[in-house]
């Protein structure tokens, strides 16, 4: 750990370790309460397992199709059966297993069966109302760093279906069961805004952070299946990103052709051969065949491909995907692996995966702890016990000092264009607090391949600049607080590259109601902050001089 102005800059593993210590204290205090101990066991499991990322959206938004694309396997149910009405978890396991958790508390193992390459979830005649959730363990590398959770559609005609998702992701009286959300929308609808507001309020905690990304699903339909459909969809996505209501609820909006993404990730060699045959036809014949979905599957169509093969291609890739695959093959793609990669890139899947890898996964420890702390807070409120003040103090310390959550809070604020900084300074601040990614190079606006020495020099320069800005006595309180947050982020970079020995950012004082404000600070913390505030006036001149020192020496 690095000591900065009498405080410790906690690394993420330390946050996990400190939370384990707090859970041990809680376990001691609740030693005779079996229900509380069961709840603490669930919190410990949440702390130890990978980040929980839920896939949510309105009915028919393409959630299960997107999930299959992310998994690279056709194992999520995409039909309109009972399975799509049940919350289903997909987690890493060395051997495949499927369990059905019933509402009466029992657990039943389910058969593993495939049909035409797709996993079949056989509920054994049970209906969704009898099932709490389904747990699928599968040996996929992508599940080692995250648990993917498929949820029933919101705004369903069946109130019970929508209620299951609301209760899981945005319950009114408790913490969300997910750490982050991928939210799919075909068009921006009032129900989308309402759900994201509920998830933010439920999952954010005292820091009011935002951990959701919007996906403009079925983006190929925006341009009526034309080859340039995704270009049109990107313009729509940018407009949604600037929308006043949505901007503060999601960290970005990514256009995506889900059916194409699933087809790309699960492409079979026989499908590549059929698409290659189609691409090899004369241009006029090919265009006549692909003018519409009806024309493509006509029995009398002028092609050697059977009706069944063409129907399968249409179901797997959509007309847009078939057109795009033919164009890509004609552009020089010579094998199925290359076609799979090219279609996945064109679908928007890579952009979404990169977003998750840059924004969610690196913040996993803090996001997991946030969920555990909120559950712990709920437990203490519902089941008070002697000595509970030790637990409450630990919860308050976390929310008061969790810098990762402050960064997410500021990013959400920045999405509305509300950072009280000059434009160029605001752009730099957004980048440094992780708007483009959380690696040291990306935060500093450098190429990912930059050397440690280059990163060190840039971090040094940025630290001097932002420490000077943070010491400006004429700055408004909100402006000064944002600058201090940036300095803390730069201190984290210095710690990451091993050069933070003498780095001392501006005092970490959070004004009431300001970005990243930690709720419920105890009297001792408030007293310490008040004393630092009284000393600050006398230290401004000294701090300005100190900001010129090399913090990396």
Distance between the termini: 17 Å
- Give the low-confidence spans: 1-11, 500-553
Main sheet overview = 9 strands, mixed
SSE class: alpha/beta
Number of helices: 22
Q: Give the total of beta strands.
A: 13
Mean pLDDT level? 82
Radius of gyration: 26 Å
Strand content: 5-15%
Work out the helicity level.
Answer: 40-55%
Give the strand order, joined by hyphens, for the main sheet. Answer: 6-5-9-4-10-3-11-12-13
Shape: globular
Question: Would you write up a description of this structure?
Answer:
The chain is an alpha/beta fold and 553 residues long. It has 22 helices and 13 strands. The strands form 3 sheets. Strands 6-5-9-4-10-3-11-12-13 form a 9-stranded mixed sheet, sandwiched between helices. A two-stranded antiparallel ribbon has the order 1-2. It has a two-stranded antiparallel ribbon with strand order 7-8. Mean pLDDT is 82; it is low at 1-11 and 500-553.
């Amino acid at each position: 750990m690095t000591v900065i102005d009498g405080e410790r800059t906690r690394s993420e593993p330390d946050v996990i370790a400190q939370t384990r210590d707090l859970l041990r204290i809680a376990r001691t205090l609740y030693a005779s309460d079996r229900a509380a101990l069961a709840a603490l066991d669930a919190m410990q499991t949440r702390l130890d397992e990978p980040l929980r990322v839920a896939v949510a959206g309105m009915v028919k938004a393409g959630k299960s199709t997107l999930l299959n694309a992310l998994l690279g396997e056709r194992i999520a149910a995409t039909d309109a059966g009972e399975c799509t009405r049940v919350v289903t978890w997909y987690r890493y396991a060395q051997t495949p297993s499927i369990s059905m958790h019933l509402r009466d508390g029992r657990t039943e193992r389910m058969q593993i069966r495939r049909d035409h390459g797709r996993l079949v979830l056989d509920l054994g005649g049970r209906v969704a109302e009898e099932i709490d959730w389904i747990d699928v363990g599968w040996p996929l590398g992508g599940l080692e760093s995250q648990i993917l959770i498929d949820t029933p559609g919101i705004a369903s005609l069946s109130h019970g279906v929508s209620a299951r998702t609301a209760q899981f992701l945005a319950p009114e009286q408790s913490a969300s069961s997910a750490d982050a959300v991928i939210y799919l929308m075909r068009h921006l609808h009032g129900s989308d805004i309402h759900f994201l507001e509920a998830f933010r309020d439920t999952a954010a905690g005292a820091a009011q952070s935002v951990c959701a990304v919007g996906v403009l699903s079925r983006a190929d339909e925006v341009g009526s299946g034309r080859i340039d459909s995704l270009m049109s969809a990107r313009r729509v996505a940018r407009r949604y990103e600037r929308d006043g209501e949505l901007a503060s609820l999601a960290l970005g909006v990514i256009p995506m052709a889900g059916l194409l993404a699933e087809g790309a990730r699960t492409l079979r060699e026989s499908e590549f051969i059929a698409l290659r045959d189609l691409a090899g036809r004369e241009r006029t014949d090919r265009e006549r065949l692909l003018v519409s979905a009806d024309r493509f599957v006509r029995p009398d169509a002028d092609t050697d491909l059977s009706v069944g093969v063409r129907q399968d291609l249409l179901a797997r890739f959509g007309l847009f995907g078939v057109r795009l695959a033919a164009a890509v093959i004609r552009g020089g793609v010579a094998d199925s692996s290359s076609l799979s990669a090219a279609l996945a890139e064109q679908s928007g899947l890579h952009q979404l995966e990169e977003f998750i890898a840059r924004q969610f996964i690196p913040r996993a420890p803090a996001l997991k702890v946030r969920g555990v702390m909120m559950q712990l807070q709920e437990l203490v409120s519902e089941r008070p016990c002697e000595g509970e003040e030790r637990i409450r103090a630990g919860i308050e310390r976390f929310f008061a000092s969790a810098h990762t959550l402050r960064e997410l809070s500021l990013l959400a604020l920045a999405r509305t264009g509300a950072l009280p900084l000059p434009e160029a300074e605001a752009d730099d601040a957004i980048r440094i607090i992780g708007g483009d990614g959380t690696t040291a190079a990306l935060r500093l606006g450098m190429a990912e391949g930059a050397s440690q020495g280059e990163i060190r020099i840039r971090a040094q320069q940025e630290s001097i600049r932002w420490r000077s800005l943070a010491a400006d006595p004429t700055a408004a309180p909100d402006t000064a607080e944002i600058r201090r947050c940036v300095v803390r982020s730069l201190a984290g970079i210095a710690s990451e590259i091993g050069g933070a020995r003498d780095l001392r950012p501006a005092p970490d004082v959070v004004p009431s109601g300001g970005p990243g404000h930690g709720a419920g600070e105890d009297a001792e913390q408030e007293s310490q902050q008040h004393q630092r505030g009284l000393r600050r006036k006398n230290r401004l001149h000294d701090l300005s001089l100190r900001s010129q020192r090399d913090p990396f020496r």
